[in-house]
Design brief:
- Strand 7 and strand 8 form a beta hairpin.
- By secondary structure, this protein is mainly alpha-helical.
- The strands form 3 sheets. Strands 3, 4, 5, 6, 7 and 8 form a 6-stranded mixed sheet that branches. Strands 1-2 form a two-stranded antiparallel ribbon. Strands 9-10 form a two-stranded antiparallel sheet.
- Helix 3 crosses helix 4.
Length: 642
């Protein structure tokens, strides 16, 4: 009888192991597909272009990392991309592309799917397998894994610190504390908000210990005696971990000891970040993250969100606090994760400054609990019919999440009406302007280094400098002190309010094109082209109903622009103009107004003759007084909303 029971138990354990391995392999395959497919499908966000142009490009030119404490964040993202560039043979900014940049966070995300297995003896094999699958299929996680910002690397390093701390608590091997210290140091090197993760983790440890005290009734005196016995064995690993964390942070912030002051500047920057916590143009109510994660119906009535994972996480948290501690360490990790998810979610919620990607760390903790919830439902279900229904529900959940991934990353990657994770995003309509300028540069002939684009915009017009990096020294994003220098530009791009003023300065050499492009849905652009180029200028037919212009596009000085305030990038080196512009699809591009623009256009045969003047432009008359351009030449700079 005993032998029969042991054999039955062994078969059940083998079946559970096989299921866990199958789910783990499926999670890895799905993560590779969802992270790397069509990475260049979405137009560049301002934050992505800022990271590439301001921080990565100088390093590719032989410089070192330069930290900008006002809004720069840490260097881990660009260092990681720099290694990737070296491995792929990319040696100059002009060789960069959207796919290469976004591979960096995608790799961190795939590694995150595998990293969960370090906690398998804490969560349980089945829960770990489901957690890795839900990490691979989380719509929010997938969307920002394809986004060149530092949120996914921060989530990876945070999870590594938790997993290494767990491994140390089980094995007491000091090497795991070294790994945990390195992870904390890299968290600091990733983003300043790592402090919120550290505080949430500390509170979760205290809460877990307090809960155990309430259940066991040991009292505080026993804690003190226990701590005294273990202090000698724990103190040295903690000191070693702290030393490793500081050393790694100093090494990378200082640009490998070339600029040591940047390490200390990273701490002084917390003053400005504390001020920005009040909102700085990104004010949201305390419940905003809850509605973002739970979901809503989009413009077409489709229910979007991660509510199935939240429901499963509630089941997992309930199990953590109601299961008898037959395997005590397992329950301890599960309770820690429940407290940590709650503390981190509340910590970010009480801060007025909110952007959707900042809650990604709490969302991943919820995913881990959702894996525990799924395993709990399977383990506690009795009977073949009930088991079938549970598996069918979990399979339906996976399919539902996969459908959202397709909709949000490949069908509506930059559409706020259908995608809740789109935030202050560049409009795909801007690609029409990029194509117009690049086609004009090719039609003119000659080396692209002679073609100059001036972007006179209160936000520096990002990501336009990224798209024009192939033209000469890139795009000039500042109003020159001597306004007569504007006559040297081949194209001047600005906001509608400033176009007449700039047109008055260059009236003899340039003419404004009567067409509007959208940088973002609420940020229209106008362009002035050199008159001698208008004969070569492709003239697309205007849309049947041009998009309405907003009442005001110049940012309110009291509220920073949603795109932030980083410094403009240094000029890029001269490079050859590619045959097709980056992100220039051959198929038609749908504008924000709902009209479909052709991928290529022919000159309008009905255009007035004077609009194709190719005669040399006369010398501009000296300006007696410059128009007031203060509204578009402010110090507002592009930047990271992160």
């Amino acid at each position: 009888m005993v032998l029969r029971l042991n054999t039955s138990h062994s078969r059940a354990a083998a079946g559970q192991l096989s299921t866990a391995v199958a789910l783990g392999i499926l999670a890895l395959v799905l993560s590779l597909i969802t992270r790397f497919a069509l990475l260049d499908h979405r137009v560049m966000h301002t934050d992505e272009a800022v990271q590439a142009e301001i921080y990565l490009a100088p390093m590719l030119r032989g410089g070192v990392y330069e930290y900008r404490g006002a809004d720069g964040h840490g260097p881990l993202l660009v260092y990681s991309t720099r290694v990737l560039c070296w491995l792929s043979g990319v040696g100059s900014p002009s060789e960069l592309n959207e796919s290469l940049l976004r591979i960096t966070p995608a790799l961190y995300s795939v590694a995150l799917v595998l990293l969960v297995w370090l906690m398998a003896d804490g969560l349980g094999r089945g829960a770990t397998a489901w957690a890795s699958l839900f990490t691979a299929l989380s719509p929010m996680m997938v969307y920002y894994s394809r986004y060149y910002i530092m949120e996914v690397p921060l989530v990876f390093m945070t999870t590594l610190a938790i997993a290494a701390g767990w491994r140390y608590s089980v094995s007491r091997h000091p090497a795991w504390m070294v790994v945990a210290g390195a992870a904390v140091g890299l968290m600091h090197v990733t983003k300043e908000t790592f402090l919120i993760q550290l505080i949430a983790g500390g509170l979760a440890l205290l809460a877990t210990r307090a809960f155990e005290l309430v259940l066991s009734g040991t009292g505080y005196g026993r804690i003190n005696r226990s701590f005294a016995r273990r202090r000698a064995s724990v103190l040295l690993p903690l000191v070693l971990a702290a030393a490793v964390a500081v050393g790694i942070s100093f090494l990378l912030f200082s640009g490998f000891f070339t600029k040591p002051g940047q390490f200390f500047e990273s701490f002084r920057s917390y003053v400005s970040y504390a001020q920005r916590a009040e909102g700085a143009g990104h004010e949201k109510p305390w419940w905003w993250y809850g509605t973002l994660l739970w979901g809503r119906r989009d413009a077409g009535g489709f229910l979007i969100g991660e509510w199935p994972l939240i429901l499963l996480a509630a089941v997992g948290a309930g199990r953590a606090f109601t299961t008898r501690p037959t395997r005590y360490e397992n329950v301890r990790l599960q309770r820690f994760l429940a407290f940590y998810a709650a503390a981190l979610f509340c910590g970010y919620s009480i801060i007025a400054y909110k952007t959707p990607w900042t809650i990604l760390g709490a969302e991943h903790a919820i995913i881990l609990l959702a894996g525990l919830g799924a395993a709990t439902l399977i383990a506690r279900t009795r009977g073949p019919t009930a088991r079938f229904l549970v598996w069918a529900a979990l399979a339906t959940t996976a399919g539902y999440l996969s459908l959202q991934i397709w909709r949000q990353n490949f069908r509506w990657p930059a559409d706020t009406a259908h995608n809740p994770y789109v935030y202050s995003h560049t409009s795909p309509d801007v690609l029409r302007l990029v194509r117009q300028v690049n086609d004009t540069a090719r039609a003119r002939g000659g080396p692209p280094a002679d073609f100059n684009v001036f972007i006179i915009h209160p936000e520096s017009g990002y990501p336009l400098p990224w798209y024009f990096r192939h033209l000469g020294g890139g795009a000039t994003t500042e109003m020159p002190e001597d306004s007569s220098l504007l006559t040297r530009a081949d194209v001047i791009i600005t906001v509608p309010e400033a176009a007449p003023l700039l047109g008055a300065l260059v009236s003899s050499t340039h003419r404004e094109i009567q067409e509007t492009w959208l940088l973002r849905p609420d940020a229209p652009l106008r362009a002035l082209f050199r008159r001698s180029l208008l004969g070569d200028l492709p003239r697309p037919a205007p849309p049947a109903s041009p998009p309405p212009l907003p009442a005001r596009t110049t940012p309110d000085p009291s509220k920073p622009d949603p795109s932030g305030d980083s410094e403009p990038p240094p000029p890029a080196g001269a490079s050859s103009l590619p045959d097709t512009s980056p992100l220039m699809p051959a198929e038609p591009v749908e504008s924000a107004a709902g009209e479909t623009e052709p991928a290529t256009t022919e000159p309008d045969p009905a255009a007035p003759a004077e609009e194709t003047n190719t005669e040399p432009a006369p010398e501009p008359a000296p300006a007696t007084a410059d128009p007031d351009l203060s509204s578009v030449t402010t110090d507002a700079t592009p930047s990271s909303d992160r």
